[in-house]
């Protein structure tokens, strides 16, 4: 894969072009994220990026140590506490945090473990999660407003993350993890493969659909993805590319 930090910056630029084009009315419209306006989505992304560039992640501990505190609950509390910014001020605040994030993560030495939601992550993996979250929330904004947001080769990072975290997804679902091979078609028509081709379970289809299922923006039944082998359908049902 290409450099994750460069691709993260490119994903921010693609979203920035969309946000810069929005009218004040569009900022206030409902997004595809239930209960959140477009402004709420951008505020949430801003708050997450500010956590990264604030320099508080070096201890390598989980940010949410209590199982009683949910990621969604914490995000809702944070957004509710700061609603009401003007679109211009919010965009400037997001840009300041987001455009600083790739270099901030790149600067950490190899072997660093950074605090994050449920478990410490390497800077590269944290950058991957940031790309995945910005891509997913860009869908919430652009789908709601009918604005094109083309899929790119950067989805390879999102698909990798979804496959890489399948053991965690199985555990959260209370299921025994099984090896899964993913044979996916990239936006440009080439193939992306993840896992052992000899794995007993296989998921095949469009990478863009696989990523959207992992982001809970589509259900497996809304896609052309196919599954073969024991627990492959379970894997597709529980796959995720976000923290929970």
From TrEMBL:
Entry superkingdom: Bacteria
Q: Which UniProt keywords apply?
A: Isomerase
Q: Pfam families, alphabetically?
A: MDMPI_N
Give one GO term, molecular function aspect. Answer: isomerase activity
Every copy of the Mycothiol-dependent maleylpyruvate isomerase metal-binding domain together lies at 8-141
Say yes or no: keyword Magnesium present.
no
The cross-references to InterPro entries, in alphabetical order and at most eight, read:
DinB/YfiT-like (IPR034660), Maleyloyr_isom (IPR017517), MDMPI_metal-binding (IPR024344)
Q: What is this protein called?
A: Maleylpyruvate isomerase family mycothiol-dependent enzyme
- What is the organism field in this record? Nonomuraea marmarensis
């Amino acid at each position: 894969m290409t450099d994750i930090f460069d691709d993260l910056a490119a994903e921010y630029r693609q979203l920035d072009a969309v946000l810069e084009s929005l009218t004040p009315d569009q900022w206030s419209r409902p997004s595809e994220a239930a209960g959140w306006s477009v402004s709420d989505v951008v505020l949430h992304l801003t708050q997450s990026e500010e956590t990264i560039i604030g320099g508080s992640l070096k201890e390598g501990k989980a940010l949410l140590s209590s199982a009683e505190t949910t990621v969604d609950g914490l995000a809702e509390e944070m957004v509710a506490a700061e609603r009401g910014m003007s679109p211009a001020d919010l965009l400037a605040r997001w840009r300041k945090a987001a455009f600083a994030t790739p270099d901030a993560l790149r600067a950490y030495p190899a072997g660093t473990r950074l605090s994050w939601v449920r478990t410490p992550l390497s800077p590269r993996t944290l950058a991957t999660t940031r790309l995945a979250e910005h891509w997913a929330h860009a869908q919430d904004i652009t789908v709601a407003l009918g604005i094109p947001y083309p899929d790119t080769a950067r989805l390879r990072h999102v698909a990798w993350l979804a496959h890489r975290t399948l053991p965690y997804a199985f555990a959260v679902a209370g299921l025994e993890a099984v090896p899964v091979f993913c044979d996916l078609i990239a936006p440009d028509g080439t193939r992306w493969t993840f896992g052992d081709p000899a794995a007993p379970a296989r998921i095949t289809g469009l990478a863009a659909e696989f990523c959207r299922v992992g982001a809970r923006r589509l259900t497996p039944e809304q896609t052309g993805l196919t599954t073969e082998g024991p627990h492959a359908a379970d894997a597709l049902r529980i796959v995720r590319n976000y923290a929970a």
